[in-house]
Amino acid sequence: MNIKIIIQTALIFLLLLAGISCKKQGNNYSGNEQRSFCYWSTNYVPDSALWNKLEANHLYVRYFDVDWDDLSGEPRPIASIWSNDSLPFNFTPSVFLTNKVFEKSSEQVLDSLSIRIKRRIDDITASFGASAFYGREYQDEHLNRDSLRSIVIGEYKNRYKDILIDCDWTAGTKDKFFYFLNRIKKDCSSKNITVTLRLWQYKQTNTAGVPPVDRCLLMCYNMQTANNFNVENSIASLDELKKYISGDKYPLALDVALPIFSWAVLFRNEQFVGLIGNATDKDYKDNFIEYENLGNGRYRSLADKVIGNYFMRKGDIIRVESVSNKELNDMAQYLRNEISMDKYSRITFFSWNKSYIENYDTEEIKKIYSLFGK
Fold first, then answer.
1. Which H or E element spans position 92?
2. pLDDT number for residue 141
3. Number of Cβ within a 10 Å radius of residue 50
């Protein structure tokens, strides 16, 4: 037999074996995907050096959102991710659905939506798999590249073990949302379906219900309403966390998401105007010409200007919000003692952004991973 054919056959066999081995892992996470981040941008751009420095080993990837389209009278996917790069070995496709989807949809519509979501997840995963294939070097021109490409894409689809469904469901939408979860569990039967869990849903199980899944990702941020002028820090604080988590154990195993993002909240006459992403105190505190420092992360504009996507008027107030390293560490220690976790529980930081990570320092993030034994 031609040696090139033997090599090609062996390579195809190894790729198939890799896909089979992933399938055999079943519904449990592996023991090396607990140091996690959330990637929540529509353009995926990896940073391998930073990833390796953090010793991270799992990534939640927001594939797309689903919102209700009044024109067509049905839910539609929007803001799909795109990239020419491949994903880390351990990743989880994530889909955000608005509450309006469940307010407007019948069970029949949700049946169709579940199938469409599965198809789109498969298509996006195939796109990442194709990027992984074309990113490799195949020097032997006699190899059947089409066959190899199909195998690499198939291996990519088998690699991930769970799908994260993200929705801030309410008491009024929980029945339809839970119906949808049961349906997508059937349509994606080879994967775990996990669900994001807001703090109010954790505390108020009588109102929110408990989703029909094996585990949830507890989102320990956005604890207060950002558009309230009198709030000090809407992102997170230990005091606010304790109001939601104190003694009662949630009936499902939990993964934990902690905030490392920052923003500025813009107010005019104490009325909410909007959010300015990725803002820090250092952007304002030393700029004495344009801002008056009011203390506690608040600044008054001394001139009209454009900032982010907003026109700021003289006299407008900016409230800069973030969570300090100490506060983040205190929250992590509290959560470790108070919530139900298991050996598979992931510690996730929201979100993957180089400037966010550098603001917190990679070593501090790794300390929190270690605090949970991850």
1. strand 91-97
2. 58
3. 14
CA distance 351 to 161: 21
What is the structure's pLDDT at 12?
44
Low-confidence ranges of the chain (pLDDT < 70): 1-28, 135-145
**Sign of CA pseudo-dihedral 330, 194, 58, 87:** negative
Q: Which helix (H) or strand (E) holds 151?
A: helix 145-159
CA dist list (Å): 138 to 5, 116, 141, 144, 257: 14, 34, 7, 10, 39
Q: Residue 229's closest CA among 319, 321, 322, 297?
A: 319
Query: In angstroms, what CA-CA distances link 47 with 51, 137, 354, 368?
Result: 6, 20, 8, 21
Tokens standing for residue 92 = 């989880």
Q: pLDDT (tens digit, 9 = 90+) per residue, 350-363?
A: 999 999 999 999 99
Model pTM score: 0.91
Give me the pLDDT at residue 323, please.
Answer: 96
